[in-house]
Amino acid sequence: MKKGKSTIHDIAEKLNITASTVSRALNNHPRISVATKKAVQKAAEILHYQPNHIAASLRSGKSNIIGIIVPSIDRTFFSTVVRGIEEIANASRYNVMICQTHDNYEKEVATVNALLNAQVDGIIVSFAKETTNFDHFLKAKEKGVPIIMFDRTNDELEMSQVVVDDFLGAYKATEHLIQQGCTRISHFTNVRKINIYKERLRGYKEALIGNGLPYDEDYVVEGNLQLEDGREAMKKLLLMPHPPDGIFSASAYGIMGALQVLKEHGIKVPEEVKLVGFSNEPFTYLTEPSLSTIEQHSMRMGNAAAEIFLEEISNKDKKFIPQKIVLKPELIIRKSSVR
Amino acid sequence: MKKGKSTIHDIAEKLNITASTVSRALNNHPRISVATKKAVQKAAEILHYQPNHIAASLRSGKSNIIGIIVPSIDRTFFSTVVRGIEEIANASRYNVMICQTHDNYEKEVATVNALLNAQVDGIIVSFAKETTNFDHFLKAKEKGVPIIMFDRTNDELEMSQVVVDDFLGAYKATEHLIQQGCTRISHFTNVRKINIYKERLRGYKEALIGNGLPYDEDYVVEGNLQLEDGREAMKKLLLMPHPPDGIFSASAYGIMGALQVLKEHGIKVPEEVKLVGFSNEPFTYLTEPSLSTIEQHSMRMGNAAAEIFLEEISNKDKKFIPQKIVLKPELIIRKSSVR
DNA sequence: CTAAATTGAGCAATCGATTGCGCAAGTTAC
DNA sequence: GTAACTTGCGCAATCGATTGCTCAATTTAG
Q1: Chain B residues 105-164 with a CB less than 8 Å from chain A
Q2: pTM metric for this prediction
Q3: Considering only Cβ atoms within 10 Å of each terminal Cβ, which end of chain A, N or C, has fewer?
Q4: Amino acid whose CA is nearest the C1' of D19
């Protein structure tokens, strides 16, 4: 009784027809008379019929669910990408299932399995920092589940990806600091060799060299790019005989940490040290001074990833050719970097 | 071939046994010999068998998926609650399906339907600001899907809920400002009459009265509590003959806006005006000065919501008695409010 | 040594929606 | 007036996993 779940059989019984007819009527099959269709619809309303997608999924072999795997949803970058994915996916009657790895490899593996068990039709993922072995994704791919990577990707995998041109973003950021008069520019990067951080480092390096400045490894600080890492890095740099007069961090939290420490030491930003971060997290424009940073167009990144998924799903039979979409990043100049 | 999806039937065929036996072997049924179990497990590995939860769900009538509906996941409060839910849910082999309403009523209704179609076993929700009609949730409840509300709830619905004691939080915040010497305290609240904002307003009012200060509606500013609303509100207040010397905002973004405007006007915080917000968003401790605020224990809120769900699911037959868990908020005193 | 109990596994139905095939009644064509 | 369609709908299988009921083969009990 309370289990108000009614099925097409209940409707069929009520109308003295078969479930097949009800199914077809609900799906607007041409071979069903208008009268029957109307009757079915009315009965469905009365019985509060709610289609059971699970049953349909079992039959069709597709769940209309896209699995999304991100390190963490409480970072604006990721939650915005998710929103971008949802936007496109929902329009095509897909739902999303969002999972977090918290940058933990085991959790990522478990998550992929959970999503496969849930029979997702595809997976859109940004890898955990820890991940270096991608077998779990390869396994999924072999089962015919398309995998689309974004942001933290891996070029060696035969899977489509959407990234921002990290090299270009880093180049722009660094060059901007140089144009503002910085001559000793430091860079915060990640200890792990993830593509995005490698690219940002490369952009930083090339910008220095391209503008006639020396590349000095002493000014490159490796860490985890979180707030605390930024603070530690800044403290270390301040002990150098010639501390930097400009800092480009590969993350937004890292540059925030640097800003805090500089302020605590009474060092003026941007007068004495200029700062640029990466990723347009909302707090970056709330700080004092507001932080210059690189906008990654996260919403568009999500859109693009979802579009690739839809494309791959509809071309399932055709030969698979992984595609790579590279979005152009944008330098957002705020107060932390202008003289 | 590429459709590497194998079923228990494939395993059965390979071993010349029936699917029933395979199923039981995989589920460690006592009536299956150890030898068979081992053989099945080996075969499952070789064939890369992945159980199809959809089929199991159809049979069992439960999907092991909890639907989560939040206004937006890119707010730390919500994403942390989600994490709290996941923590408990995953431990009990439940997956979550996260959906965003963006505070839009129609989207909320559509989302509830999508979740019901996906056969979720329960829904944990924080209502959209726009929502005043709750029929979509009542419908779900009638179908036997437990609904658990958190944060933005409604006392008139016969459904369990987890909230923070908004009244107490607001009272503490306001009293703190009073103790720091403020005599003209302003409050930013929401235009809509959502329970949490009503309670916070009440707490503010009672704290004033309880401490012998007058309650003056001119100091209460209604808005949408976003950054821009906070800015507007602050600008308006500064035009008053006697601008406030303390502000308690019902949101974190609102108080941030106030801080920005005050700094732009060269007004010193906390010396001239003291500030306290609500919700411990990460940026609140990154500002200069750092913002005092109310911690809502969002992780615990998520834990509690998930626990209630598990409880209700296991007591399906028993008489349903909605429960209400009220968490105690905590005042986090930072620099923006101490003299 | 036989009856009772236990072990191991197969048969077939079930969950709810979908769909190819078939069939009867009604239409149209020539 | 009959052959050829068309219309409207039912039958039954299917998707993959699960489970109550059976039943044969062993084992144990007495």
Answers
A1: 113-114, 116-119, 139, 142-144
A2: 0.88
A3: N
A4: B20
